[in-house]
Write a structure and sequence with these properties.
The chain has a two-stranded antiparallel sheet. 66% of the residues lie in helices and 3% in strands. The two termini are 23 Å apart. The protein is an all-alpha fold.
Length: 158
Protein backbone atom coordinates (compact mmCIF):
# COMPACT_ATOMS: atom_id res chain seq x y z
CA UNK A 1 0.00 0.00 0.00
CA UNK A 2 1.11 3.52 -0.76
CA UNK A 3 1.47 5.85 2.22
CA UNK A 4 1.31 9.63 2.09
CA UNK A 5 4.40 9.70 4.27
CA UNK A 6 6.52 8.21 1.47
CA UNK A 7 6.13 11.43 -0.54
CA UNK A 8 8.15 14.58 0.10
CA UNK A 9 6.40 17.81 1.13
CA UNK A 10 5.95 19.12 -2.43
CA UNK A 11 4.61 15.78 -3.67
CA UNK A 12 2.23 15.49 -0.73
CA UNK A 13 1.02 19.05 -1.39
CA UNK A 14 0.35 18.12 -5.03
CA UNK A 15 -1.62 15.03 -3.99
CA UNK A 16 -3.66 16.99 -1.44
CA UNK A 17 -4.21 20.16 -3.52
CA UNK A 18 -5.28 18.51 -6.77
CA UNK A 19 -8.80 17.39 -5.68
CA UNK A 20 -9.74 20.93 -4.64
CA UNK A 21 -8.36 22.39 -7.84
CA UNK A 22 -10.25 19.78 -9.88
CA UNK A 23 -13.41 20.75 -7.97
CA UNK A 24 -12.86 24.43 -8.85
CA UNK A 25 -12.12 23.62 -12.49
CA UNK A 26 -15.27 21.57 -12.79
CA UNK A 27 -17.40 24.28 -11.17
CA UNK A 28 -16.36 26.88 -13.77
CA UNK A 29 -16.52 24.46 -16.71
CA UNK A 30 -20.28 24.91 -17.09
CA UNK A 31 -19.89 28.63 -17.74
CA UNK A 32 -22.59 29.51 -15.19
CA UNK A 33 -22.28 32.45 -12.81
CA UNK A 34 -25.47 31.46 -10.96
CA UNK A 35 -24.97 31.31 -7.17
CA UNK A 36 -27.49 28.49 -6.72
CA UNK A 37 -25.76 26.38 -9.37
CA UNK A 38 -22.43 27.07 -7.67
CA UNK A 39 -23.82 26.02 -4.30
CA UNK A 40 -25.28 22.77 -5.67
CA UNK A 41 -22.02 21.90 -7.40
CA UNK A 42 -19.88 22.62 -4.33
CA UNK A 43 -22.30 20.58 -2.20
CA UNK A 44 -21.96 17.65 -4.62
CA UNK A 45 -18.17 17.95 -4.34
CA UNK A 46 -18.31 18.04 -0.54
CA UNK A 47 -20.37 14.85 -0.59
CA UNK A 48 -17.73 13.10 -2.73
CA UNK A 49 -14.99 14.25 -0.32
CA UNK A 50 -16.98 12.98 2.66
CA UNK A 51 -17.66 9.61 1.00
CA UNK A 52 -13.94 9.24 0.25
CA UNK A 53 -13.23 9.06 3.98
CA UNK A 54 -14.74 5.56 3.76
CA UNK A 55 -13.27 4.70 0.35
CA UNK A 56 -12.41 1.04 -0.29
CA UNK A 57 -8.89 2.07 -1.35
CA UNK A 58 -6.75 2.87 1.69
CA UNK A 59 -4.65 5.48 -0.16
CA UNK A 60 -7.69 7.47 -1.33
CA UNK A 61 -9.13 7.18 2.16
CA UNK A 62 -5.89 8.50 3.68
CA UNK A 63 -5.93 11.47 1.27
CA UNK A 64 -9.53 12.29 2.18
CA UNK A 65 -8.77 12.06 5.90
CA UNK A 66 -5.67 14.26 5.48
CA UNK A 67 -7.80 16.83 3.66
CA UNK A 68 -10.30 16.87 6.51
CA UNK A 69 -7.55 17.42 9.08
CA UNK A 70 -5.77 20.06 7.03
CA UNK A 71 -5.34 23.58 8.32
CA UNK A 72 -7.91 25.74 6.51
CA UNK A 73 -5.29 28.47 6.13
CA UNK A 74 -3.12 26.13 4.05
CA UNK A 75 -5.58 25.91 1.17
CA UNK A 76 -6.73 28.52 -1.27
CA UNK A 77 -10.33 29.43 -0.52
CA UNK A 78 -11.02 31.96 -3.26
CA UNK A 79 -13.96 31.24 -5.48
CA UNK A 80 -13.21 30.10 -9.01
CA UNK A 81 -13.96 32.90 -11.45
CA UNK A 82 -12.55 31.99 -14.81
CA UNK A 83 -11.12 29.42 -17.17
CA UNK A 84 -7.74 29.59 -15.40
CA UNK A 85 -9.23 27.18 -12.85
CA UNK A 86 -9.81 24.60 -15.59
CA UNK A 87 -6.28 24.95 -16.98
CA UNK A 88 -4.78 24.65 -13.51
CA UNK A 89 -6.91 21.58 -12.75
CA UNK A 90 -5.78 19.84 -15.94
CA UNK A 91 -2.14 20.73 -15.28
CA UNK A 92 -2.18 19.43 -11.70
CA UNK A 93 -4.14 16.33 -12.71
CA UNK A 94 -1.48 15.41 -15.25
CA UNK A 95 1.30 16.07 -12.73
CA UNK A 96 -0.29 14.03 -9.94
CA UNK A 97 -1.10 11.14 -12.28
CA UNK A 98 2.52 11.05 -13.44
CA UNK A 99 3.79 11.22 -9.84
CA UNK A 100 1.53 8.38 -8.71
CA UNK A 101 2.42 6.19 -11.69
CA UNK A 102 6.07 6.56 -10.67
CA UNK A 103 5.83 6.30 -6.87
CA UNK A 104 2.56 4.61 -5.89
CA UNK A 105 1.28 1.11 -6.41
CA UNK A 106 -0.68 0.68 -9.66
CA UNK A 107 -3.88 0.03 -7.67
CA UNK A 108 -3.46 3.17 -5.58
CA UNK A 109 -2.64 5.33 -8.61
CA UNK A 110 -5.68 3.99 -10.46
CA UNK A 111 -7.98 4.47 -7.45
CA UNK A 112 -6.84 8.07 -6.90
CA UNK A 113 -7.25 9.08 -10.54
CA UNK A 114 -10.64 7.33 -10.72
CA UNK A 115 -11.67 9.23 -7.59
CA UNK A 116 -10.71 12.55 -9.23
CA UNK A 117 -12.81 11.65 -12.27
CA UNK A 118 -15.70 10.63 -10.02
CA UNK A 119 -15.45 13.95 -8.16
CA UNK A 120 -15.53 15.95 -11.41
CA UNK A 121 -18.38 13.88 -12.85
CA UNK A 122 -20.53 14.28 -9.73
CA UNK A 123 -19.94 18.03 -9.63
CA UNK A 124 -20.63 18.41 -13.36
CA UNK A 125 -23.85 16.44 -13.08
CA UNK A 126 -25.11 18.21 -9.97
CA UNK A 127 -27.34 20.64 -11.88
CA UNK A 128 -29.37 20.01 -15.00
CA UNK A 129 -29.29 22.85 -17.50
CA UNK A 130 -30.93 23.69 -20.79
CA UNK A 131 -28.30 23.37 -23.46
CA UNK A 132 -30.09 24.80 -26.46
CA UNK A 133 -32.46 27.42 -25.11
CA UNK A 134 -35.86 27.64 -23.50
CA UNK A 135 -37.54 24.76 -25.35
CA UNK A 136 -34.60 22.37 -25.31
CA UNK A 137 -34.41 19.45 -22.94
CA UNK A 138 -32.39 19.68 -19.77
CA UNK A 139 -29.07 17.86 -19.68
CA UNK A 140 -27.11 16.79 -16.63
CA UNK A 141 -23.75 17.61 -18.18
CA UNK A 142 -23.49 20.45 -20.67
CA UNK A 143 -21.01 20.72 -23.53
CA UNK A 144 -18.46 22.76 -21.54
CA UNK A 145 -18.53 20.26 -18.69
CA UNK A 146 -18.28 17.32 -21.12
CA UNK A 147 -15.21 18.85 -22.77
CA UNK A 148 -13.61 19.46 -19.36
CA UNK A 149 -14.33 15.89 -18.23
CA UNK A 150 -12.83 14.53 -21.45
CA UNK A 151 -9.74 16.72 -21.02
CA UNK A 152 -9.45 15.66 -17.37
CA UNK A 153 -9.66 11.98 -18.34
CA UNK A 154 -6.95 12.57 -20.92
CA UNK A 155 -4.73 14.38 -18.40
CA UNK A 156 -5.10 11.57 -15.87
CA UNK A 157 -4.41 8.75 -18.32
CA UNK A 158 -1.80 10.25 -20.67
Amino acid sequence: MTELSQFDDDERALILNTPGVVLKGTVVSDGSKNALVFLKEVTAGAKVFKEARKHENAFVKSVALALRERDPESSEDELPVDDVAMSEALKLAAEVADLLRRKATPDDAAAYTAWLLHLATEVAGAVKTRQGGLFSKKVAINEGERMFLDDLHQALTA
